[in-house]
User: Which sequence fits this backbone?
């Protein structure tokens, strides 16, 4: 099983990166092949809305940036862990850019792959937030889950890591075990 992590945070070693990588570690422990990318290392532009990816050709997205590497990785992945910090009650701008660029995945370039694949790609959404109440942005998280389901992802889990204002993720007791478990159960499902 191939699982990729997308860390849509400007911090390479922040809370979101920690959580995504611990989930991947849990999956790796169960034999999954894992890799992660951090937006801190990537140059990815917003969707231009040119619709070239939907013009009937198989060229996919025409923007020549680091998203092309992610398209290849996405094409190959059985499961995706998408992590984002909560910014102003929503996903980060990086996560939104990534999500918008998924529009090209519905293009002919990807359709042979999806026709062959009977199962949908699994997706785990991971949000980290400063606020200590994990229910604070519940409506937004539910909406986001629904939106990714509409994009044909099999959303397995929405992990909300709250209380980052108080102390960073790696200092929160029990989080390590919880994250590893999210990863390992993704493989055993
Ligand atoms: C611009 C900005 C906006 C934020 N907005 C919120 C928010 O609306 N609610 C919240 O609970 N935390 C908010 N936070 C805190 C982050 O979500 C939190 O610190 C997160 O864990 C950071 O993740 P990172 O370490 O991966 O960057 C905000 C932080 C920043 C920088």
Assistant:
């Amino acid at each position: 099983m191939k699982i990729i992590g997308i860390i849509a945070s400007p911090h390479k070693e922040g809370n979101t990166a920690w959580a995504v990588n611990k989930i991947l570690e849990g999956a790796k422990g169960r034999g999954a092949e894992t890799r992660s990318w951090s937006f801190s290392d990537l140059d990815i532009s917003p969707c231009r809305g040119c619709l070239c990816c939907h013009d009937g050709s198989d060229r996919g997205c025409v923007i020549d940036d680091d998203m092309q590497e992610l398209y290849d990785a996405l094409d190959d992945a059985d499961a995706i862990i998408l992590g984002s910090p909560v910014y102003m009650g929503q996903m980060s701008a990086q996560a939104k850019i990534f999500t918008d660029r998924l529009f090209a995945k519905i293009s002919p370039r990807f359709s042979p792959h999806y026709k062959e694949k009977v199962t949908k790609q699994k997706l785990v959404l991971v949000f980290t937030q400063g606020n200590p109440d994990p229910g604070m942005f519940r409506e937004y998280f539910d909406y986001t889950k629904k939106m990714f389901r509409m994009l044909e992802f099999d959303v397995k889990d929405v992990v909300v890591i709250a209380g980052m204002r108080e102390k960073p993720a790696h200092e929160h007791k029990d989080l390590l075990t919880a994250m590893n478990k999210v990863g390992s159960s993704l493989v055993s499902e």
Q: What stands out?
A: DSSP finds six helices and five strands in the chain. The domain at 2-43+52-188 is CATH 3.40.50.360 (Rossmann fold).
